[in-house]
Amino acid sequence: MFVQVIQGHVSDAARVRAQFDRWVAELAPGAEGWLGSTAGVTDDGTLVALARFESEEAARQNSERPEQAEWWEQTSELFTDEPEFHNSTSVDVDTSGDPSQAGFVQIMQGRSRDPERVRELMANDPTDWEEFRPDILGTVSVGHDGDAWTMAIYFTSEEAAREGEKKEPPREMQQMMKEMEALNVGEPVFHDLRDPWMQAPS
After folding, report:
1. How far apart are CA 58 and CA 65, in angstroms?
2. pTM score above 0.90
3. I want to staple 200 with a disulfide (CB 3.0 to 4.6 A). Which of 33, 36, 81, 123 is the partner?
């Protein structure tokens, strides 16, 4: 899988949403290999979008379409600063529910001293997430730009997510979290998408 993360401050969330809806209606039918997108604008006006493709080649072919270039030219005018792009084939998807039904999505971003060790810890996590945190429907983890990472966490609702945060983690998970935190470079940044835009091929 290939994921492109796009982020930056926008001037009008409603107009950006309209542009994304137009892409799904008009451009998505011709976007070979597009698997879906998660996007939204935070309270401070930061857009974060994750576009998923079957492969980097499929994403490149989409980018080269004239209609895609035209759409992006119009969309880019809604950014108040230069948007950032992070491309990656280092992607891990974990679903314990249906992320498309999420009412709240939290995007975490940070850097790690040992990205491979973090992936190993997450892959071997023994936690029964469906039992421990039924409010979490799934995650998409993306490693990019060397030591950086972006993770999208899909929740049933923000209220359920805040309640879930108060739970005491299992001992094994506490040990894993402690090691992962020790590998962090600085503190992670959180972007709350209270009105997530969940888009997928029809």
Report:
1. 11
2. yes
3. 36
